[in-house]
Structures are given as structure tokens and as C-alpha cells.
Q: What sequence folds into this?
């Protein structure tokens, strides 16, 4: 009896949603009244009058709207229809309407710069509200249909590298296509945009040099996160540790820049950066083992404190006497700057050495084994005689030191002065990179370089004269959108490589396959 009531309730809800969909389609047809696009006869006249691709697509869109209208209305009068028939009709209707609504929106955008008759044919801007509502309603109904069939999320057998490769490549391809669609919809040439991304990242010698210099702190920041996250110590304070490393290194640059030779000053700044970062990483670790505080909140708050210390210094003892009203730190003397090797600052050598050391340390030493054991099960580590508190403090000292060295290399190899934006968005980007590569140091370094190249290439979009439309450059926010789309697709692919969605009526075999 209860199952019958539930089935009846679902049928009623489904009919109500179908009725709403029908009404919105009627409203859309009403909005087309000025061009008489709400009838098949008008579509036929459009095909004959305008011809070409625009006329054909217009007729197909109109017929699709009418088809969706008829099918949605028919659902209201099928009380005894089978479950398969009802769902099939609804799914077909919604998919067709959603697809052609997207096409209509795209063609409306194309009509902006087209002749007036094409713009009038597509209904002008009045088409936008109706189709946005149709798209939203279609997405909601498809979501409801999905939820009604959803049962649970199950973990599946981890795929091999070769099995996962096609999925990751498809994710990257999907991200590129969506980015191109986004650029197209805002009125710019997507092919020219991606050509500019290539030129702005590695297309010229100067661009490649800047990309490599940006990659150095990104790689080291990723190593710092991986070391801490291997222990399940959520070190979100890499930005603060990087900033403190830059502060400690700047002390020697400003105080002893002209007093010490270059061969002595640079190693001293290197050690100072490591000590500054290690000290800032020690604070949340000590609070964790002493008072069991939240390392996430503690490290996050330290990020802001480090930034405010920089602001205090640049408006106080380290203010540039040549520009007192600007509140900036002076530039480093040449003695405090890293030398160039192969056209880039020598920091890449330090980053490469640290990458090798971190890889060996985590995979081939007893300390690395203790880090993994503490991360997987703290009680088991205590049972095995591992000094958990000591491991936590020691690991955070190492993680903080690596982040501090990244800060030192950034200010002495690229910025050449101390500023509060020395960490930029590195602190949180490296967390994404570390999770993306599943805490693999070598893969993390490669992905960090790729992210740096993407950042540099996307930033060059808004400065390219070849992408101007009516004298207006592409918006700078488009760079952030492109990177966000890439992250969304790549992280989404990782989810589907790890888990599978189980629908009602399906069961999982021992091998992880659906049956």
C-alpha cells in the first residue's frame, strides 16, 4: 500500500513538472510572436526566405520547440503509461530542448554582428530570458530524474596509468572546448586566444624565462604541501611560511647587502629563508602536539599575520627613503640577487635538488616511513614505537623550511624586493596541485610547471592587441575562468576514476563492474 502511494506521489510530481515545462515552452513561443517563429509555416517561410545554414538551423530549432511542446503536453494525458515510456519521453524532450536552447543562444550571439534581418529572425535580445529559463528548468528536471535513480557512490578498483590516461586526456580536451566556447560567447576568437596563451607562456624566450621563474616557488610550495599532507597534517599555511622566509632573507639583503660578498650573502639568505619558514611551520605543529589545536585554522591565521608583518616593515624600518610616500621596500642591490644560469635565475637548480631530496626522503628513508605510518593511523604508529609528536614537529619544520626557501628564491630571483604579495596565489594553488597528483613529488613538480605556464599564458590574453574587438581587449577575468574550467574538468575526471555512481536496479560485482 505504501509503495502504491509513493508511486502515485511520484507520478503526480512528474506531471506537475511536465506541466510547468509545457507552460514555459508556451511562454517561449509567445516571445517569438513578433517574427511568427512559433509556427511550422513560419519556419518553412524562413527556410525559403533566408536559406543557408542560418535558415536551416532556425527551422530545426522551431520544429524542436514544437516537438518538445507536444511531447510535454502528451505526458499530461498518459496516466496509464508505463514507467519506461514516461521517462523516455521526458528525457528525450528535455535533452532536445536543452540542446537547441544552447544553439539558439549561440545563434543569438552570432546575430549581434550580423545583418539586421538575421538579428530580427532570431528575436533579438528578447530570446535570452526565455531560453535561460528553459535551460534552467531543463537542468532542474534532469537533475530530479537523476536523483530519483541515484542510489549511492561506490569506490571502484584503482585504474592503471594506461587505463586512466584516456580519461584524463578527454578531461583536458573537454576543458579546452568549454574554454573556447566561453571565449566565443564573449565575442572573441578562441583560436587566436589559445595561440596567445601558447606565445605568452613558452612561445618566446622571454615568456619561457618568466614561466620558469614562476615555476620555482610553485614547485617548492608543492613539495612543502606534499611533505605535510603525507602525514595528514593539513598545512594550509604555506603562503605564510613562504612570506616569513622572504622576510628573513630580506633582512640579510637589506642589512648586509653591501657588506658581504655575493658568495657569502646568497647562502646566508638561503639559510635565513629556511629558518623563517621552519619557525612559522613549527608554531602550528607545536600547538597541535601540545594542546591538540586545529592545525588548519592556526596555520591559516598565520598567513595573515605574516602579511601584516610585511606591511609593518615596508611602512616602517624598511621603507624606501627615495619614495617615502609610496610605502615600499627598496630594491635589492645586485649583490643580493641570484645569478642567471641558462637565461633563468639559478633558483631552478635549488628547486631541482630539493625535489630529488624530498622524493628520496619520503620513499627511501625511515623518516619517510614514519611520516606515512603517522598519516595512515596514528594509534598504529604509537603501537609500533614511532614518536608521533616528534615526527609531527620534525615534518612541519621540514615543510616550513621548504616553503621559506621558496620565498627566498622568489624575492632574490624574480621580485628583487620584499612586498606583501610575495606569496600571491601560490599558497592555495599548490594545495590543488598536491591533491591532483595524489601527493606524488615528481608528478607534482611537472603539474606545478604546467600550472605556471597556464597562468602566464592566460595573463597575456588581456594584453594582446590581436584579440581586440572594437578596441577592447579580452577581460582579464577570462584567465581565471579558463584556469577554473581546467581545474574543474581535471578534478572531475579524478573523481570518476576513483568512484562510480550506482543507480537503482544495478549491483556491483567483485571486480567493481556494474551488473
A:
Amino acid at each position: 500500500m505504501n509503495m502504491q502511494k509513493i508511486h502515485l506521489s511520484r507520478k503526480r510530481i512528474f506531471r506537475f513538472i511536465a506541466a510547468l515545462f509545457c507552460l514555459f515552452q508556451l511562454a517561449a513561443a509567445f516571445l517569438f510572436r513578433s517574427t511568427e517563429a512559433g509556427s511550422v509555416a513560419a519556419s518553412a517561410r524562413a527556410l525559403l526566405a533566408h536559406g543557408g545554414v542560418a535558415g536551416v538551423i532556425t527551422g530545426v530549432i522551431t520544429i524542436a520547440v514544437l516537438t518538445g511542446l507536444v511531447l510535454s503536453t502528451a505526458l499530461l494525458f498518459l496516466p496509464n503509461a508505463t514507467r519506461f515510456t514516461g521517462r523516455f519521453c521526458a528525457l528525450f524532450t528535455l535533452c532536445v530542448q536543452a540542446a537547441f536552447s544552447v544553439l539558439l543562444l549561440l545563434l543569438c550571439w552570432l546575430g549581434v554582428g550580423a545583418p539586421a534581418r538575421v538579428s530580427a529572425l532570431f528575436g533579438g535580445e528578447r530570446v535570452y530570458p526565455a531560453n535561460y529559463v528553459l535551460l534552467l528548468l531543463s537542468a532542474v528536471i534532469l537533475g530530479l530524474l537523476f536523483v530519483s535513480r541515484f542510489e549511492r557512490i561506490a569506490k571502484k578498483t584503482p585504474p592503471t596509468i594506461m587505463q586512466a590516461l584516456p580519461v584524463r586526456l578527454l578531461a583536458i580536451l573537454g576543458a579546452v572546448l568549454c574554454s573556447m566556447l566561453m571565449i566565443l560567447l564573449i565575442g572573441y576568437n578562441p583560436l587566436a586566444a589559445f595561440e596567445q596563451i601558447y606565445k605568452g607562456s613558452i612561445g618566446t624566450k622571454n615568456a619561457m624565462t618568466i614561466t620558469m621563474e614562476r615555476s620555482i616557488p610553485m614547485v617548492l610550495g608543492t613539495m612543502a604541501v606534499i611533505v605535510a599532507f603525507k602525514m595528514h597534517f593539513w598545512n594550509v599555511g604555506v603562503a605564510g611560511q613562504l612570506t616569513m622566509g622572504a622576510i628573513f632573507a630580506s633582512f640579510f639583503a637589506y642589512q648586509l647587502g653591501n657588506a658581504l660578498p655575493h658568495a657569502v650573502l646568497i647562502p646566508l639568505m638561503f639559510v635565513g629563508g629556511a629558518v623563517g619558514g621552519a619557525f612559522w611551520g613549527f608554531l602550528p605543529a607545536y600547538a597541535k602536539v601540545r594542546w591538540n589545536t586545529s592545525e588548519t585554522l592556526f596555520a591559516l591565521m598565520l598567513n595573515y599575520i605574516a602579511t601584516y608583518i610585511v606591511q609593518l616593515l615596508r611602512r616602517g624600518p624598511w621603507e624606501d627613503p627615495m619614495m617615502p610616500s609610496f610605502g615600499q621596500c627598496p630594491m635589492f642591490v645586485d649583490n643580493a640577487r641570484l645569478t642567471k644560469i641558462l637565461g633563468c635565475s639559478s633558483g631552478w637548480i635549488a628547486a631541482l635538488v630539493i625535489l630529488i631530496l624530498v622524493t628520496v626522503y619520503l620513499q627511501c628513508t625511515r623518516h619517510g616511513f614514519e611520516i606515512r605510518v603517522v598519516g595512515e593511523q596514528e594509534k598504529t604508529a604509537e603501537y609500533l614505537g614511532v614518536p608521533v609528536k616528534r615526527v609531527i614537529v620534525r615534518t612541519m619544520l621540514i615543510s616550513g623550511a621548504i616553503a621559506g626557501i621558496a620565498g627566498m628564491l622568489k624575492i632574490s630571483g624574480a621580485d628583487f624586493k620584499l612586498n606583501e604579495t610575495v606569496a600571491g596565489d601560490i599558497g592555495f594553488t599548490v594545495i590543488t596541485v598536491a591533491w591532483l597528483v595524489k601527493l606524488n613529488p615528481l608528478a607534482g613538480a611537472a603539474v606545478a610547471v604546467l600550472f605556471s605556464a597556464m597562468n602566464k599564458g592566460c595573463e597575456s590574453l588581456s594584453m594582446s592587441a590581436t584579440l581586440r574587438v572594437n578596441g577592447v581587449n579580452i577581460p582579464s577575468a577570462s584567465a581565471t575562468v579558463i584556469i577554473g574550467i581546467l581545474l574543474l574538468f581535471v578534478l572531475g575526471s579524478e573523481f570518476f576514476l576513483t568512484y562510480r555512481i550506482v543507480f537503482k536496479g544495478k549491483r556491483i560485482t567483485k571486480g567493481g563492474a556494474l551488473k
